[in-house]
Amino acid sequence: MTLLNAPAYNERKEHLKNVILISSASGFALLVLLTLAGFLLGHGWLFSNLPAEHRVSQFFNALEAKDYNKAYGIYNHDADWQQHPEKYKDYPEKRFQEDWTTDSDLGGPITAHHIDISKTDGSGTFGTGIIVAAHVSVAGKPRPDPIFMYYLKKSGELTYPAPHILEY
User: Fold this and answer.
1) Beta-carbon-side half-sphere exposure of residue 141 (alpha carbons within 13 Å)
2) Which pLDDT belongs to residue 1?
3) Spans of the chain, pLDDT less than 50
4) Rounded Cα gap, residues 148 and 133, in angstroms
5) Which helix (H) or strand (E) holds 141?
6) Running DSSP on this structure, what letter comes out for residue 114?
7) CB 89: neighbour CB atoms within 10 A?
8) Residue-wise pLDDT tens digits, 94-139
9) Burial 4-25 (b: 16+ CB within 10 A, else e)
10) What is the per-residue pLDDT for 50?
């Protein structure tokens, strides 16, 4: 092919190339932005820790509503825990209720909460759990220090206190 017999200019094909190029660049830029935003805002890369934060928020909502059976089910990631309470004989529901009300190291029952930040923790590339920091109000008074819940990725269970505290 020489310059004299070059193919005819195809405007539609060139337009399609430009649309694909701009779409790809925009998609990549959006992916980078979401990845960094999730990390910088404290919710994990690409906001991957949001499900754990939501679970902890559900747990605190149940405690605030004084629905300790539901909160115990969320804590153990077993909504049907009442069908097999012997599975939880090491930490029975009665002891759980005492720990989150009268014998609480928090100073009483939780009346309000706000999830602040979360960080992946543990071994492996993506960690074995997620530490979730929350500010809570106890008996109507806000606590100055946050509390840290630990979400186990493998089982979906929650533990308190978390193995580490977060600096933020």
Assistant:
1) 7
2) 60
3) none
4) 5
5) strand 141-142
6) E
7) 7
8) 999 888 887 777 778 889 999 999 998 877 777 889 999 999 998 8
9) eeeeeeeeeeeeeeeeeeeeee
10) 92
